[in-house]
Each structure stands twice: as structure tokens, then as C-alpha cells.
Amino acid sequence: MTEGRKVREVMIPIHDYSTVRWDAPLKEAVEILRSSLHREGRVWYGFHSIAVLDGNQHLVGLLTLRSLLKTLQFHAISRDAWLKGSSWGWYFAHRYHRQAGIRVKDIMRPLALATIQADDTVFQAAVKMITHRVNSLPVLEKRKVVGMVRTIDVFNLIGELLAG
């Protein structure tokens, strides 16, 4: 029965998820994320986030593709010839150069922001994703992170439910 399915049934076990140290530079995080993606034809597949670990190997947050793109947008802006020539373009270029030393911990989504319990239903996960405007949720069991559930995992089950 699809509607009562638990998050634990569709989650990705945490040991199968890509990780990065919280003090790693963004360049390292980008490389890890890129290595978790693969291409089939013109379509890219893979995770859109990386689990962030502290110095004791505890999960402390998520670094999402969206967070990386927001931060890296300044890189593209700083190379734009039109902006460099404008009277205010220096502002964006300066801001990018200030961000060059950013570490993963500076832009990650803290673990406490949004999580789900392993025994919660997939529907509850969907509601939480919509409420918190996130695409993945760390899955907890007895306060320990045991996996990740993504919108695609939830979407597949909701599709089954709607199909009858």
C-alpha cells in the first residue's frame, strides 16, 4: 500500500551518500558533487546535495547544488566584461573575491533546519519538503542520521498513489 509507506523504505542510506568536510573549500565540494553525477546521453543523474561532516565525522548539514550555484554566481559576474566596465560592476567583482575563501560550513544548510524521522510516512516527507522549501531531507532514527530522502524518491511514490 503506497499511502502508508515509510521514509525508511525509500531513503538512500547515509553511507551511500556523498560527503564533504565542513571546513573544506568550495572547490573541493564542487569536485565531490561533480564526481557523484553521471551522464547518460544528454541527461545528468546523481545527487543534488552533499552530506556535510564535522571534524568528528558527525553529520552537521547539507550542501546543496542551489547553495553552490548562488555562491558561484559571483564568479560568473566577476568575469563579465560589461559589468567590469560599469560604474557598479566593481561591487560584484569585489564581493566575489571576498568570497573566494568561503568554506563549506559558511554556506551549508544546518542539519537542524529540516529533518524527517525514518518511520514517518512519505506523505509527511512531501509536506515537510514543501513547507521548508527543500529538495532533500536527512532521515533520523533515535536522533542519528541514517539516510537521505529526496524529492524524486517522494515523487515516485506519490505518482504511484495518484495512478491508483
From TrEMBL:
Residues 11-79, 108-164 form the CBS domain. The keyword Cytoplasm does not apply. SUPFAM superfamilies: CBS-domain pair. It comes from Desulfofundulus thermobenzoicus. This is CBS domain-containing protein. Keywords: CBS domain. The keyword Transcription does not apply.
